[in-house]
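User: Hello, can you help with two protein structures?

Assistant: Certainly.
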Amino acid sequence: MKTPEFFKRSELTATLWTFRNEFLMVGLFSMLANVLMLTPTLYMLQVYDRVIASQSELTLLAMSLLALALFGVMAFAEWLRSRVLVRAGVRLDERLGTQVFNASFESHLSQTGSSPARSFGDLLQVRQFLTGNGIFAFFDAPWAPIYMAVLFMLHPWLGVLGLFFAAIQVLLAWVGHRHTLAPSEAAVAANSEAGSFLQSKLRNSEVIESMGMLDNLRQRWAKRHADALVQGTAAQALTQRVVAWSKFIRYSQQSLALGAGALLVIDGQLSPGGMIAANVLMNRALGPIDQIVSGWRGFIGAAAAFGRLEKLLLGFPPRDAALSRVAPQGQLEVRDVVASASGRSTPILKNVSLTLASGTVLVVLGPSGSGKSTLARVIMGIWPDVSGNVLLDGLPLSSWDRGELGPHLGYLPQDIELFEGTLAENIARFGKVDSAQVIEAARCAGLHDMILRFPKGYDTPIGEAGALLSGGQRQRIGLARAIYGNPALIVLDEPNANLDEAGEAALVKTVQTMKAKGKTVVLITHRPGVLAVADRVLLLIDGRVQAEGPRDAVLAALQAAAKPANPGPASAVAVPA
């Protein structure tokens, strides 16, 4: 069956369309269950109007056995539809889990969306709604008119009374949604903000404890927490008022329906069995509406989560799995790059251009805040707001599949991010551990002998974020990870910030080794010790390229510019002798 155009909007809607057979089965089971829901009504009518009048025990036994059999079929149908939806929910998660993970990660990296945790929370919310009791109300709701029709057949006034209470319930749902949605969302946002504030401070607990900052931060958290409590209390008060009115209407409906039936019995317009049956039937007719009212908030939440997921998957579609490129050689070209950031009136990088042949070592110099780290992220293709082009072997970085490109890139950021696992797993980027390549990378980074002194060698766990290592050890492991597999392009941002003399010597040796292998290295630093291995030097000041070219020529120009009494911008950087 051809997929309708409506369901081609995103991977999410297209995936839901593939479950149409399951939803059709649920609809059929719901039809069977709702038809059999008339069994109690018919049973009561027969018992009150026939069995009691005839006093036939055999008729009562036969009718009771038939009713029990129908109840069993009804229960089996309801169990089957629940089972179908649960399995469909699991398959939905399996189909979309990887795509949501990839899309949410790309969205978070580009700073245009929520975190991956929020996206998976949205997927969970959609799946839970599709497999929960809320969805059954929508399958049962089309049968409410049939129950209403039976009420009209028993007596027109009973049908009118049922329609009246149905309208009251719908009105209550609309009023409740209109008045409780905004306060509930505000309360959730306030709680999330307070929790995020606390979590972010826990990551820096050592700094907080050592400098006595706990009380000051607690006061700030307490203010956010108090605001969340106030908003949460207000939202709960509104919700409880709506629930109280809903209960009042529900109990009033049950009593008034019984009273109306009794009045009709007194007037001789309805039998006693019809009175009891009408009360049960009205409860059943209004049941789906009551379920929709009580589950409306969940439906709104699931609809909002669905919209966010659809927007996410539309904005970050899956890459073409069949796309494959030749391994890059490391030729880098940056063309007229302008990098911006939200909250800044001026760009961080302003028309930066450079070209590096394979096997070139470029050292980037510049004062703090000149945009060096931003340039490193732009070269790696991970800065979100960029105009211009970054080409690797003549192809834009954005045209590569990141899973395919990743092994050909090496990156060492200023803030070393290691992950819970062993030393070998971190160096191997948590892929399949190639022992020979792990040891080669560790040797090249001057790390091998140090690792052998650990209790379990390369299999030593490093704790969360490498908490069991020193700053210099983390930096060397990050360097080994960056050069693991001999990538074609390596970007090192302040790689010697936490290194001693031995570590810096190992760094210089590593860069020389990569250069000898024909790898392109971009090295950002404030320290002049690594200039000896540079082929080219780039001076970056206030986001602009002040000088770029062969090392000796650039250094000579900078030394000449530093001699005048009124030095220009180039003299803002100390030039090594």
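That covers the first. Now for the second protein you mentioned:
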Amino acid sequence: MSNVLKGTIARYGIRPDTRSVLLRAFALLVCVSIWILPAGAQPAPAKSAVATAHPLATRAGEEILAAGGNAFDAAVAISAALAVVEPYASGLGGGGFWLLHEADSGRQIVVDGREVAPAAATRDMYLDARGNPRPGITMDGPLAAGIPGEPAALVHLAKRYGRLPLATSLAPAIRYADEGIEISRGIGMGLKFRAEAARKSPAFAALYLPGGEPRQAGATVRFRDLARTLQRLAADGHDGFYRGDVARRLVAGVQAAGGIWTRDDLAAYKVIEREPIRVQYRGATLVMVPPPSSGGVVLGDTLNILRAYDLASLPSVERKHLTIEALRRAYRDRAMYLGDPAFVSMPIERLLSPWYADGQRTSIRLDRATPSDNLPGIAPDTGGGTNTTHFSVLDKAGNRVAGTLSINTWFGAAFIPPGTGVILNNEMDDFSIKTGTPNGFELLGTAANAIAPGKRMLSSMSPTFIESPRGVAILGTPGGSRIISMVLLSAMAWMDGVDAEQMASLKRYHHQYYPDVVAYEEGAFTADEKAGLEARGHKLELSQRSFGNMQVVTWDRETGRVDAASDPRGGGEVTVY
């Protein structure tokens, strides 16, 4: 281009001083044009794809995309729909993390809608006079609930990133709640498991346990209070949930049952946007969620340990042994260091550095497992769940969302404030209520994750993008403390060349530092692998139920193929069109 400009200058006899100015202007024009082009823009996929844990949630996302919405509008619709159709796993009374990619700018961001501790929360609020944990208090009833973040996140997504009005994106969920849904097998199982706690909440019991007995699969239930709460959110946005009549009902119900929420707690809630964690591994970039999710740090820590090994050349038992040993050390770091970045200084740069991984690797032996007690750090005080959900969305412009949402355990706190239809979370159990005391998922913690007013509890939710020359994978799963290991195994499989369906159905195994056991699904290890791992000193424990409910969308940039898969362990559904 500069030669063309020089020829033009010579042809028309432009003076040297003018020539110099023109050349500088042209150079500036080129620089500006490069600068304003979307830095991360990529060719657009030929199709959209949605993968969620429930067919009706998938249809809600498809409906919004067909109405002209983008992936972010679809994420709002799916999140709200899951609150209705999968109420044991997520909802307006909980929170989550939404990992976003904007196609036109290449910008990637994490929308943190994690719950926060109420202002009246205290460090030792769940301990008795002797300093011992009070049984069940972090799990059942409104005292176990943090201030919800999902409603605020849905408003934020619609306003900041969506094309459609919030009311349009919430319409499918409102319709499902108002018209009613069929009680699924999962809802029925969860009700049986949580019936004793649920009977203490009159509003919950009236909806789900008429006559004192859990509703059976196949029954149809209408959620009229929840429909009205969603309508209020659609009409008034943030204030429709966190102020006004809904907030008044939430607080009145919580306080009447012994909880500590106030209307100021609700009014003060804010979504936080965070920069993702990015880690390079085998030519791919993993884009992950930072604290207060532990997912990105633990995944990055694990992969950095493994990067020095030529895993493809090793026997399968050695590959799995090394993966278990890397997870052991990364989960130990989770217990020691991670929490809410607004409250604790974390050595994240160190934890994700190559030289730190080099140090971690020096204690790993190919022929022996390292007992967790032999690693320096926290020890348990000697005195896995599926109750989260995930969805993945890709639109035809290339926008994408990986969203993981939760109310923690089955039906959260098993409590509904009367007149709201909102099932409250029991995410306060994700704090470390006492150093060395395991939480409901047997995870340990220290003061870094101690309770404090306004603090966000540490999470394992791990919505993830994998970007490589091959293309893009969008994935995540429920599963409590096992989420991170499930995402790890599927990410490594993606880099080995598997497709979306294989990623979602992969047999899984897990180690989390404490307890010092390798939990595994039937089929995760061959007989020879089990024998080899046990010979190295690993204690294997066959899980009595399956791990997780992964939802995957993939896009092969070379072929243009868009694919999606829903975990065969669950009852989800995908659409690609």
